[in-house]
Amino acid sequence: MSPFRSFSLVCLVATAPLVAAAPVLAQDKAAECALQAEMVMAVVAERTGGASAGDAVGTVQAGLEGDVAKYASVVPAVADWVYSLPEKQLGDSVGTSWTEACMAR
Question: In Å, how far are 8, 81, 92 from 78, measured between CA atoms?
């Protein structure tokens, strides 16, 4: 067997589990992006409810439970971003945009 053919066979065997796992990884990524969007929308809800950025951070962090709780440390950065958006942009599209950007990474 030629070295090239042997290398190709090794590459095929080595990558087969990755290809087989791709749908699972995509599902996991979609689930993670949905969790992140949930946290982002909690910040949006606080802002549209009239909370200050600092109050929103505290409230959202305190309310994170289950799988989404792991994102508590990024709430301040998300709040900075959400509070920088024009008020007319605050709506469901924020969570949708977050999910799309997350899935593209």
Answer: 45, 5, 15
Q: Which of 83, 101, 9 is nearest to 43 (CA)?
A: 83
Kind and range of the H or E run holding 92 = helix 92-104
Tell me the pLDDT of the chain (105 aa) as tens digits: 444 343 333 333 444 444 444 455 567 999 999 999 999 999 999 999 999 999 999 999 999 998 888 989 999 999 999 999 999 999 999 999 999 999 998
Question: What whole-number distance in Å separates Cα of residue 57 and Cα of residue 16?
Answer: 43
Place of tokens 């992140």: 36
